[in-house]
Amino acid sequence: DAKTTQPPSMDCAEGRAANLPCNHSTISGNEYVYWYRQIHSQGPQYIIHGLKNNETNEMASLIITEDRKSSTLILPHATLRDTAVYYCIVRVARNNDMRFGAGTRLTVKP
Amino acid sequence: NAGVTQTPKFQVLKTGQSMTLQCAQDMNHEYMSWYRQDPGMGLRLIHYSVGAGITDQGEVPNGYNVSRSTTEDFPLRLLSAAPSQTSVYFCASSRDGSPYNSPLHFGNGTRLTVT
Q: Residue range B104-108: average pLDDT?
């Protein structure tokens, strides 16, 4: 499985865009990049995923570099409720295992 | 859709007791799994199922049993609880077992304490 590297913590001002980076330099051609978040002690929440192209949904945008070795999750207008731990996962395990690392703790400040 | 529902939310057991953590999903998902989350350890896969009647072990299966008699339900049984099983347990489901394009949907967890 490809491994990911994320900064341990980030701050963002409320109303501004939050850009969360992820490095996955050993990603292989058929591996998707997934983003989840976990708010306090709730269950992980799926945000978005992609293979090669940039993706956007109602929650966020995912920008994947052309060489696929890194990606950025963008929350366009962060709110206080976006304070959470964000996980970038590259997944191809046969058993569909989702290997969560330490993630990035995003704190949105007023 | 209620999504993935886990019961109970909290549970305290004494060492040696047994219990079943319930998980149900109403999305007609084929794939279901159980994780435990411990501080500093991330989520670790306990057992998973790719469809009714099929189960398999994950990374940390010892001390746990599962069954999948219906598509909707995937209970996790602790056979003889130990303090090392104190953790937060999450159930998850996805449309199918493909890791490529099938996001996992998680329940809100069961917080288990074994004394």
A: 94
